[in-house]
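Contributing new records

If you add data, match the layout below exactly. Sequence lines come first and carry their own label; structure lines follow with theirs. Keep one chain per record. Anything else will be rejected by the validation script.
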Amino acid sequence: VQLVESGGGLVQPGGSLRLSCAASGSILNIDTMGWFRQAPGKGREGVGSITKSGVSVLSPSVSGRFIISRDNAKSIVYLQMNNLKSEDTGVYFCAARRGSGLALAVQSYDYWGRGTLVTVSS
């Protein structure tokens, strides 16, 4: 399974970005996808998770501002980020898990992308 993120960049506080994650390879057994982020000097944290049927969950720190969605036909997962804050700065990673069910823990995922950098700054 290969995961490739795109859509990161520099944005001002209050702005928006949409991240994409394209999955390829042996993805037939992949159900749940997730987004994680890692701020400078900090550990990786779960941002959102979504199952193939579209059930999703977001971390409380981004709930109400971010939206996670997926296009199963295209094997792409999206993270729409609105009202961005400086504390949202970090490298954002896409992940996939062989198991079913929502999960925001790093250890629940089996495959990872290389990440895309999001910088929120004026």
